């Protein structure tokens, strides 16, 4: 019964009001013409209502006239008539088309791409190389050959040692691994000197190869020769060239200066705000507001992006964006000098500590002064570090 009712809905049916002196003649004529009807209901002895298919209704009027009956259509039902009523509802049809396209795109197109595992290689470079091979946002999933793409990308970007792409629905995840830096191995067969790369007082001097030029307690400047690759042989008064090697440590000095302008501006919120919404579909954005101009001359903006994920962790290719603009006014103000001086002092000391390159900076000094409404803070310190760089002899 349910299947028959669903069948009648798909093909369309009508409800008719039949009036006549001899209704039985109408039934006989319908059977003779091969017209099926059902759900007969007598209103009076000479009047009844019944249902029939929409296709049979097109041939029923001659049959009713031959039986001496009048026929009046009272109701239409079924998918055929429903579709006709919806033809003028353009917004509904457009929404249905968008929904159909969305479900098709969810299973057929790549709408979002995430790159993971990178450190030095920019994701834009990886995506650009993929696009050159015909894979990007909007590419059909069935056209992606992961094995061929991996071989092409590894040849295109030699910094990568591993590349793989995994597609989940319309979301593609690109996972890469970068090649490690190969340390440069010095050629010890070439003659070379060791030259100071900073100014300091030598505290430790251990020479393994070469001829030392400084002693503990010597003051050296940047560019001074520490160990020479030219060695004088004392026995026969000859010389030989070697690749100098040594561990030389010195007490070096550090200095850093920070500054801030004492005349500044203060932001004061006015209490006014404006909220805008937009829909992100892959790389496309649909704004739910007409005026694209900024709502205020001076404002702070907070953007919230609401994304949806499936149970397997893959993201859907659309997101709701909420942008809130808060208006503020600015007024000139003079910051507290003592507070700014304390902040600058800490910043300068942190800069000096960072110059220690792992060594403990000691004997920290600090000087604070004001010149032309500019507050300065200069910090100094010292640490013991290994000095000297290898320079090949010409």
Structural features, described:
By secondary structure, this protein is of the alpha+beta class. The chain folds into 5 domains: 2-83, 2-Layer Sandwich (Alpha-Beta Plaits), CATH 3.30.70.250; 107-178, Roll (Ubiquitin-like (UB roll)); 192-251, no CATH class; 257-262 and 335-385, no CATH class; 264-333, no CATH class. It has 9 helices and 22 strands. It has helices at 2-11, 23-33, 54-57, 60-66, 79-86, 90-108, 123-132, 146-156, 337-354; strands at residues 13-20, 38-44, 47-53, 69-77, 112-116, 160-168, 171-178, 192-195, 200-209, 211-212, 219-220, 225-228, 230-233, 238-241, 245-261, 264-281, 284-287, 299-309, 315-333, 362-371, 374-387, 389-392. The protein has a 5-stranded antiparallel beta sheet with strand order 11-9-15-21-20, with helices on one face. Strands 2-3-1-4 form a 4-stranded antiparallel beta sheet. Strand 18 (299-309) and strand 19 form a beta hairpin. The longest helix is centred in the N-terminal third of the chain and has 19 residues, at 90-108. The protein is elongated, with a radius of gyration of 43 Å. The model has no long low-confidence stretch (mean pLDDT 83).
């Amino acid at each position: 019964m349910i299947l028959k009712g669903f069948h009648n809905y798909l093909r369309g049916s009508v409800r008719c009001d039949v009036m006549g002196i001899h209704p039985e003649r109408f039934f006989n004529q319908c059977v003779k013409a091969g017209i099926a009807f059902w759900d007969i209901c007598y209103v009076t002895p000479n009047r009844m209502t019944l249902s029939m298919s929409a296709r049979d209704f097109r041939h029923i009027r001659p049959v009713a006239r031959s039986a001496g009956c009048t026929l009046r259509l009272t109701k239409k039902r079924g998918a055929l008539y429903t579709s006709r009523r919806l033809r003028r509802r353009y917004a509904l049809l457009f929404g249905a088309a968008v929904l159909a396209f969305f479900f098709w795109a969810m299973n057929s197109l790549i709408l979002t791409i995430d790159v993971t595992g990178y450190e030095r290689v920019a994701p834009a470079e990886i995506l650009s190389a993929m696009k050159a091979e015909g894979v990007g946002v909007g590419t059909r999933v069935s056209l992606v050959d992961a094995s061929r793409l991996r071989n092409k990308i590894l040849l295109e970007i030699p910094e990568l040692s591993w590349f793989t792409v995994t597609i989940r629905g319309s979301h593609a995840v690109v996972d890469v691994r970068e090649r490690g830096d190969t340390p440069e191995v010095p050629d010890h067969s070439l003659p070379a000197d060791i030259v100071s790369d900073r100014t300091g007082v030598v505290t430790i001097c251990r020479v393994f190869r070469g001829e030392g030029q400084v002693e503990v307690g010597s003051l050296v400047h940047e560019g001074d020769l520490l160990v020479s690759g030219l060695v004088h042989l004392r026995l026969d008064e000859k010389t030989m060239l070697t690749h100098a090697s040594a561990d030389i440590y010195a007490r070096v000095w550090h200095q850093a200066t920070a500054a801030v302008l004492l005349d500044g501006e203060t932001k004061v919120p006015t209490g006014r705000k404006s909220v805008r919404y937009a829909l992100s579909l892959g790389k496309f954005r649909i704004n739910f507001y007409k005026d694209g101009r900024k709502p205020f001359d001076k404002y702070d903006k907070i953007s919230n992006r609401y994304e949806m994920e499936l149970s397997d962790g893959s993201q859907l290719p659309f997101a709701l964006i909420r942008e809130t603009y808060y208006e503020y006014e600015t007024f000139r103000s003079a910051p507290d000098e003592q507070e700014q001086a304390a902040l600058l002092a800490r910043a300068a000391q942190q800069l000096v500590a960072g110059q220690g390159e792992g060594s403990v900076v000691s004997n920290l000094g600090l000087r604070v002064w004001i010149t032309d409404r500019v507050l300065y803070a200069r910090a100094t310190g010292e640490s013991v570090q290994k000095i000297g760089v290898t320079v090949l002899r010409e």
